[in-house]
Amino acid sequence: MKKLLIIGIGAGDPDFITMQAVKALNIVDVFFMLEKGAAKDAMVELRREICRRYAKDRSYRMVEAPSPRREPRPADYTGCVDDLNRAKQETFERMIADGLGEGQVGAILAWGDPSLYDSTIRNIEAIATRQAIDYEVIPGISAVQVLAARHRITLNTIAQPVEITTGRRLAEGWPAGVDSVVVMLDGEETYRRFADQDIDIYWGAYLGTADEILIAGRLKDVSDEIHRVRAAARGRNGWIMDTYLMRRR
Fold first, then answer.
1. Which of 10, 66, 122, 136 fits 141 for a cystine, CB–CB 3.0-4.6 Å?
2. Cα 175 to chain center, whole Å?
3. Cα separation of 36 and 30, whole Å?
4. Residue 167 in contact with residue 185, Cβ under 8 Å?
């Protein structure tokens, strides 16, 4: 039977690789990668660098394919994501069928941790219902963990919960029953809607990479600065990956 490893590679820094991930990298015959265009070449290059640095015990191959695209501002977000995942499943299914032999081990290197706002596990689970493959998940260091470490904070206050959500959901209102909210996948800078409230923000972009940016302070004082810095960074790099924690005082 074919085996597939979903390996969390951490958020941007090759040093975030865990010892478990290193061991997993060294039993892989084929690495499968989706290319996301020139603007995000650095994300693919990080994956290649991780393989060069840590996969030392055996020879391996890399099989790459263009990543399916999705509409940047779809009217039906959930439906659009479902369509994207189906397209990714078809791409990975072809790659695995053509590129991985019986008894071999393949791997997908998932940015951050594959259990948090990542569809790789769901996609491979779907493929496993159609192909005879076994799969295993190796956890990684998420952007949320890196954000807290960089700002030297905890995600929650004592005995209180923290909610992890998206910018799209935060736009519907502050989650009930929590004072601390971590926001991922926010292309609309939803934090700006709360700038008139007594809230602290801890923001980070390109966490773990050479382009890492950190800003923290009272939201009403730093909201405009984050907006300016974020826009400039996105203009330079052609893309941005950021996350933040907001905490009510």
1. 10
2. 22
3. 19
4. yes
Task: Give 169-194 pLDDT, tens digit per residue.
Answer: 999 999 999 999 999 989 999 999 99
pLDDT digits (tens, 9 = 90+) for 55-70: 998 899 999 988 887 6
Q: Which pTM was predicted?
A: 0.90
Residue-range domains of the chain with CATH: 2-138 (3.40.1010.10), 143-248 (3.30.950.10)
Q: DSSP character for 228?
A: H
SS3 132: coil
In the block, tokens 């994207």 appear at 84
Residue 229, Cβ density class (10 Å: 0-12 exposed, 13-18 middle, ≥19 buried): middle
Find out whether 63 and 99 touch, Cβ atoms under 8 Å.
Answer: yes
Helices vs strands, H then E, count in the chain: 7, 10
